[in-house]
């Protein structure tokens, strides 16, 4: 597995996490499928939009003490992260999925905070990658 380093100024959220922020082999396959930097950037946009919505739902699940909704939304976030190779976020989702009802009720907000931290790190790394692809400006038709 090839690994992208953290972007400048970013810190790993969980220092003991041996997973890379991004798995380059997954991103390379995604790039091959997109065949266009603009389409790749759109995939990153979709990841960010869906992750933000899921994080909001997770926070609501904690507030309403809805463990089944929490488990469903964490699972969706894990799939969303896996699609773009955000491996630390995937691992954090797996830890949150493994939390039982008691841990959810005791530390649900901390679980969401950890997920948000890993999401921010992954999003920054993906944005840096998108910038490095030098997405060309579209010329206006004459």
Short description:
This protein has 142 residues and is mostly helical. It is built from 5 helices and 2 strands.
Can you tag this structure with a few keywords?
single chain; 142 residues; Four Helix Bundle (Hemerythrin (Met), subunit A); two-stranded antiparallel sheet; 2 strands; 3% strand; elongated
Give your account of this protein's structure:
- This protein is an all-alpha fold.
- It has one domain: HPT domain (Four Helix Bundle (Hemerythrin (Met), subunit A), Up-down Bundle).
- It has five helices and two strands.
- It has a two-stranded antiparallel ribbon with strand order 1-2.
- Helix 3 packs antiparallel against helix 4.
- The longest helix has 32 residues, at 101-132.
- Residues 10-16 have low confidence and may be disordered.
Overall spatial form: elongated
Q: What order do the strands of the largest sheet run in, or round the barrel if closed?
A: 1-2
Structural class: mainly alpha
Q: Give the total of domains.
A: 1
CATH architecture name: Up-down Bundle
Q: How many H/I helices?
A: 5
Terminal Cα separation, in Å?
Answer: 46 Å
| CATH uppermost class | Mainly Alpha
Which consecutive residue ranges, at least 5 long each, have pLDDT under 50?
10-16
Assign the CATH superfamily: HPT domain
Give the helices and strands as they follow along the chain: EEHHHHH
* Global mean pLDDT: 87
